[in-house]
Design brief:
globular; single chain; 11 strands; 117 residues; 7-stranded mixed beta sheet; mainly beta
């Protein structure tokens, strides 16, 4: 079992910045990739950014150029630096890890990000 603990959400004005962090713990055989997803009220959960254990990153087009994902394999952590935040970035952000002997998706409990206009 893998546990994911997120931190760093909060309230910020449009144009501001926040940094989210996620730490994985538990019985971790291997982490293949980690990432962030978000879900706004009334909408489906969507990908924000992912990073593989090899360092390959992928971003949603809506955040490209504003958000940066980074990872530390040794510490099993992933960070999401969010700059130039917009009100439409408001959502619950979930940490995700693809991990295990047989790759399985694990999810954090979510952290609220609210961007005021």
């Amino acid at each position: 079992q893998v546990q994911l603990v997120e931190s760093g959400g909060g309230l910020v004005q449009a144009g501001g910045s926040l940094r989210l962090s996620c730490a994985a713990s538990g019985v971790i055989f291997k982490i293949y990739a980690m990432g962030w997803y978000r879900q706004a009220p009334g909408k489906q959960r969507e990908l924000v950014a992912t990073i593989t254990s090899g360092g390959t990153t992928n971003y949603a087009s809506s955040v490209k150029g504003r958000f940066t994902i980074s990872g530390d394999n040794a510490k099993s952590t992933v960070l999401l630096q969010m700059n130039s935040l917009k009100p439409e970035d408001t959502a619950v952000y979930y940490c995700n890890a693809l991990a295990g002997l047989v790759p399985i998706d694990y999810w954090g409990q979510g952290t609220q990000v609210t961007v005021s206009s």
